[in-house]
Amino acid sequence: MTRNKMTESDLIEVRSVSRQFGDLHAVREVSFSVRQGEVLGFLGPNGAGKTTTMQIITGNLAPSSGEVIIAGYDLLDDPRSAKAAIGYLPEQPPVYPDLSVDEFLDYCAALNAIEKSVRQEARESVKRKCGLVQVGHRLIGNLSKGYQQRVGIAQAVIHMPPVVILDEPTVGLDPIQIREIRQLIRELGKDHAVILSTHILPEVQTTCDRVQIISAGELVLNDSIDGLNKHMRAASVTISLQNDAKLSLLEGIPGVKSIHAEADGRIRVFHETSLDPTQEIINIATQNNWGLFEIRPGRVSLEDIFVELTTDEPATGQQEPS
Fold first, then answer.
1. Which domains does the chain have, with CATH numbers?
2. What strands lie across the sheet with 163-167, from one edge to the other?
3. Averaged pLDDT of the chain
């Protein structure tokens, strides 16, 4: 078994991974890590390289270059040990509709080399964790989509792997089922390192500790949810004035990126996240007798950030409610 040095709490480490298909660079020098007790939201538009990266991490596709370390095991040098440390739920749950939940989970326990003497205990434990206790005797094909997703998650974690990778786990569910699956993912995040691949942006904000966005094969954002929320709050300032203003004075403030006049007469001042121009705006408005009667932070949504980072469109944002 080949172990590599990692940070003690790192369970996934992707090091300068690239993948080419002929002349196409699907993934370029992608590097990131995921710690135990962390849920990472992985976002990207179609064709961005997200699926390719997921296939590489789960050992279904070899990288052209770079390394993937799972729970200390090199995925290329010791694939058996590395893959044994992964629980994977693909977008389509790999369940057998003609088996009961109990039969299927017993089968999964055997596939994951759980000793026969403890398979029943492992099955009952994962049923409790995934809310399947009441449906163990039922055929999977007769369960609702939400319960089938729960069975899919159960097969991924029955062997208690340190790493759990979930691909679009709430697609096709109703709102109640979505809330239940998100709660289950948060519970899993307490004991495992979890990667959640999703197109549902609010899901990332409600479920994950950190978010990363891939575009054109490269990571364009890797930040904590707290850091992302600060970025979203600090992207702009909205002001209202009683008198006409010389906007060129605002454009000259350090950190100001652009000025936009809104249809309702307000003015949006977009600025660098590291430089807050609020005090300077107040000073200039006072000195020039503009009659400043409102100033408040704007807010850019995660969708705005996603669009700005993955297309050529600027973030438009929305005002904070009064």
1. 10-224 (3.40.50.300), 236-299 (3.30.70)
2. 86-89, 163-167, 193-197, 38-43, 210-215, 218-224
3. 89
